[in-house]
């Protein structure tokens, strides 16, 4: 078996009476971008929340050799998983700079944090001049970029991205996905990407899983899925 | 000695002041403003403590005043060596610290007690309905009040002021040194709290954890500990208000109850989520009460109803208060 950085093995989760995940198994190889596709309510977000310890699960979730099935969100984060939630999780009343600083909260290596801040500003030069602005004043695209920048400040091993295209204009969506490809390449970051925009997601990812009502119904290499008839019909709008 | 002392304090001042007040409206008015501001500083620090807890948990901590009272008793014990019942049982606590050493220690002990209270009494109710938590703080009110009463009794005790009792004269206006001292100490404490929250990593994390707990946890913040630190900080800030007011109202387990009422009014006036609002609201309430007490016929007895009136009025007319914004929190 290839060295998966993150592995889910028969993971189930319930929200009260609703079974959100029914035995989901997923593997994310180190250095890859893996897409998680599916309609609204298929369990994509729940999968990410399960990884981060935000919902109770059965089954096994392992990350880099650690069993994180019972871990709390803060401990999962400290192991090196940066979770950019749907809606970006921006701290609206804090400044842009404070948001970035919060990304480095658990780190003690001050000089490396400074370097990372410089690198994030390299990706998003606008952050420099708007650093003391309250984050709520940013546009949706800028908030998404700030959320990704903040995740990079954690210097994580892996990023979970939940619907980065949500509510953004097509041009911005393209920019965000270019960025995802770039950080995967440049930062050697493993990425698990949840998307409704399957078209975009399949372009930046190497493999993908399709979820339906809490189950994986299809999995494979991204280019194969992009050619798959039922995927094209259901998710690519053909 | 009557509890009345507590209620008339802000308007009474030193005897010289009263004598002078007869000489003209303006000097008297300014003196009222200053002693009102000193009372307001006491309300402000307790109000700030309330706001710290409210921002973190969305609850009014009804025990905040009692926690401040307890911190003041600790300072009193360290200064006088009177550790109450526990002291007579143990018999070896012969300490007589100078005021400021006792002040600093009491602040530290209060902080530790605040953290402990959160861990032991609040933590088990994590995720419980807010009403449950409010009732827990009411229980805490009785526990702390009863503990202090059991140990030290309900007899008023003298808590010596660290400030001289005379006054400065500035252009015909007499300014009580005690009033100035209270205002300065409070402003220093508030400045420290402000700098902590604004410029330190931990302060930033505490703000983030209070306002955005879920996003903070995803960044590795141990939000549950942040909450405990918040309780500690609130207890420490509250203790300062207790130690500043105790020389004036005398020390006893019930001494903070009217102060708590005015602190609530101050916090509501400032906007219950705004630390700056708590401070401005506190000073404003202090001055308003001083003026009501002096210029409204029978005003001395109207101070408590007036405090309530301010609270209800603000909630009716502008629920977000002076510095609050309603929409900022919930997504």
Question: Brief overview, please?
Answer:
The complex is a heterodimer of chains A (238) and B (331). Chain A is α/β, with parallel strands linked by helices and 238 residues long.
Topology:
The complex is a heterodimer of chains A (238) and B (331).
Chain A lengths: L3 E12 L2 E12 L3 E6 L5 H8 L5 E7 L2 E2 L5 H7 L1 E4 L11 H8 L6 H14 L2 H4 L10 H14 L4 E5 L7 H17 L3 E6 L2 H7 L2 E6 L2 E7 H6 L1 H7 L3
Parallel strand pairs in A: 3-8, 3-9, 6-7, 7-8
Antiparallel strand pairs in A: 1-2, 1-4, 4-5, 9-10
Chain B lengths: L3 H9 L2 H7 L3 H33 L6 H17 L3 H7 L8 H24 L7 H23 L14 E4 L2 E4 H23 L1 H11 L1 H6 L4 H27 L7 H14 L4 H21 L7 H15 L14
Antiparallel strand pairs in B: 1-2
Give structural attributes.
heterodimer; A: 238 residues; alpha/beta; Rossmann fold; four-stranded antiparallel beta sheet; 39% helix; 28% strand; globular; B: 331 residues; mainly alpha; ABC transporter involved in vitamin B12 uptake, BtuC; two-stranded antiparallel sheet; 2 strands; 72% helix; disordered C terminus
H/E element order of chain A: EEEHEEHEHHHHEHEHEEHH
**CATH superfamily placement of chain A:** P-loop containing nucleotide triphosphate hydrolases
Distance between the termini of chain B: 53 Å
The CATH top-level class label of chain B: Mainly Alpha
Biggest sheet: strand arrangement of chain B: 1-2
- Rg from Cα of chain A: 17 Å
Oligomer: heterodimer
**Structural class of the secondary elements of chain B?**
mainly alpha
Q: Could you name the CATH topology of chain B?
A: ABC transporter involved in vitamin B12 uptake, BtuC
Strand content of chain B: under 5%
Helical segment count of chain A:
10
Helix content of chain B: over 70%
Number of domains of chain A: 1
As residue ranges, the low-confidence spans of chain B are 1-8, 327-331
Q: What's the total number of strands of chain A?
A: 10
Number of extended strands of chain B: 2
Tell me the number of structural domains of chain B.
1
């Amino acid at each position: 078996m290839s060295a998966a950085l993150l592995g889910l093995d028969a993971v189930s989760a319930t929200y009260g009476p609703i079974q959100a995940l029914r035995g989901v198994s997923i593997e994310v190889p180190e250095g890859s971008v893996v897409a998680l596709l599916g309609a609204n309510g298929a369990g994509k977000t729940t999968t990410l929340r399960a990884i981060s310890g935000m919902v109770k699960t059965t089954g096994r979730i392992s990350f880099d050799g650690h069993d994180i099935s019972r871990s709390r969100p803060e401990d999962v984060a400290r192991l090196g998983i940066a979770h950019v939630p749907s809606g970006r999780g921006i701290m609206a009343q804090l400044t842009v700079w404070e948001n970035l600083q919060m990304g480095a909260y658990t780190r003690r290596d001050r000089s490396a944090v400074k370097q990372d801040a410089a690198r994030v500003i390299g990706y998003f030069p606008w952050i420099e001049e708007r650093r003391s602005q309250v984050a709520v004043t940013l546009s949706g695209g800028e908030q998404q970029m700030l959320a990704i920048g903040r995740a990079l400040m954690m210097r994580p091993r892996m990023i979970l991205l939940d619907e980065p295209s949500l509510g953004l204009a097509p041009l911005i969506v393209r920019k965000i996905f270019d960025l995802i490809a770039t950080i995967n390449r440049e930062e050697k970051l493993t990425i698990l990407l949840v998307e409704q925009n399957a078209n975009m997601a399949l372009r930046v990812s190497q493999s993908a899983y399709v979820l339906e009502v809490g189950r994986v119904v299809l999995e494979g290499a991204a280019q194969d899925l992009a050619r798959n008839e039922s995927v094209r019909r259901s998710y690519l709008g053909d | 000695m009557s509890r009345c002392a507590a209620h008339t304090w802000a308007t009474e001042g030193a005897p010289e002041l009263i004598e002078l007040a007869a000489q003209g409206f303006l000097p008297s008015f300014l003196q009222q403003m200053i002693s009102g501001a000193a009372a307001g500083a006491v309300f402000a620090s307790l109000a700030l403590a309330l706001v710290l807890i409210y921002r973190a948990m969305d609850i009014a901590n009804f025990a905040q005043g009692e926690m401040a009272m307890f911190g003041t008793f600790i300072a009193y014990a360290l200064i006088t060596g009177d550790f109450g019942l526990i002291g007579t049982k143990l018999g070896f606590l012969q300490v007589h610290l100078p005021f400021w050493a006792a002040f600093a220690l009491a602040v530290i002990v209060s902080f530790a007690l605040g953290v402990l209270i959160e861990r032991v009494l609040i933590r088990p109710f994590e995720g419980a309905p807010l009403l449950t938590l409010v009732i827990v703080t009411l229980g805490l009110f009785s526990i702390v009040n009863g503990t202090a009463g059991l140990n030290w009794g309900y007899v008023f005790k003298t808590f010596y002021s660290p400030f001289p009792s005379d006054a400065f004269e500035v252009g015909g206006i007499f300014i009580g040194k005690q009033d100035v001292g209270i205002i300065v100490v409070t402003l220093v404490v508030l400045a420290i709290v402000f700098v902590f929250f604004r410029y330190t990593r931990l302060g930033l994390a505490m703000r983030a954890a209070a306002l955005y707990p879920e996003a903070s946890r995803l960044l590795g913040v141990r939000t549950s500990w942040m909450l405990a630190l918040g309780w500690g900080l609130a207890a420490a800030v509250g203790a300062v208000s207790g130690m500043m007011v105790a020389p004036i109202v005398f020390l006893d387990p019930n001494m903070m109850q009217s102060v708590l009422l005015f602190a609530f009014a101050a916090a509501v006036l400032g906007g219950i989520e705004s630390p700056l609002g708590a401070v401005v609201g506190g000073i404003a309430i202090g001055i308003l009460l001083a003026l009501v007490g002096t210029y409204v016929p029978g005003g001395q007895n109207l101070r408590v109803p007036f405090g309530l009136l301010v609270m209800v009025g603000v909630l009716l007319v502008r629920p977000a208060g002076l510095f609050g914004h309603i929409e900022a929190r919930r997504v």
